[in-house]
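Subject: Sanity check before I submit

Could someone independently write out the structure tokens for this chain? I want to compare against mine line by line before I put it in a report. The sequence has 219 residues.
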Amino acid sequence: MKIIINNVPFDYEMGLKVCIAGGIQIEGLDLNQEDTLTFKDIAMLQNIEQRRIAIFHFGTEKLLNEIEPVLVSKEILNKTTECIVDEVLTTINYQDTYELYKVSGKKLFGKNYGDIRDEYYVKCRDTSTDREYIIWVDISSVLRTNGKSEWSFRKGEEVVDAIECIAWTIKTDVPTEEIEYIVRQGDCVFVKTKKEDYEVVNTRHLSKEEYINLLKFES
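---
Independent answer below. Compare away.
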């Protein structure tokens, strides 16, 4: 059984928790349960829209109080895109802000023992709807993608920034040298190649350099 919240389906138990957290009343649904939504529940969701809706009903203030995220990096990119305004193709200049946060692994997963590493998420806004998104990233993979040493990072000798992390969220099987430009529309990514016939590589993440230099349009 599924529960649909804001046109997005949730498994029954998770949907019930989101409804209780947000005070959503659904006819025929018993909300008199002590089924408390936690940020750990939200972190386990793989679907970005489910996470966004769950976080909205969970509440930003409660979120910050529960996991106490620490701002690691804040980056601003000046971008240009084209859209239709009053039936006219218009070029728009805007700024995109990305923030990278660190969360204590022990606080997130509720454990006080063992080798629990910190977790990281990047916060950004949808350029067309202004919705705020939180995307969890594998910091080890981000470092490898950008040619950095995880060992040096763990010792505090290497840094990672928000642009590297948002770039990591985009995947492609096209080699860098074969990419002419990249277009991103929501969760859909389109890669314009320099030629039709190219050697496909194993699916990989984009680097910061590719994100800055090759991403031409977003919506």
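---
OP: Matches mine. For the report I'm noting this point. The CA atoms of residues 142 and 168 lie 6 Å apart.
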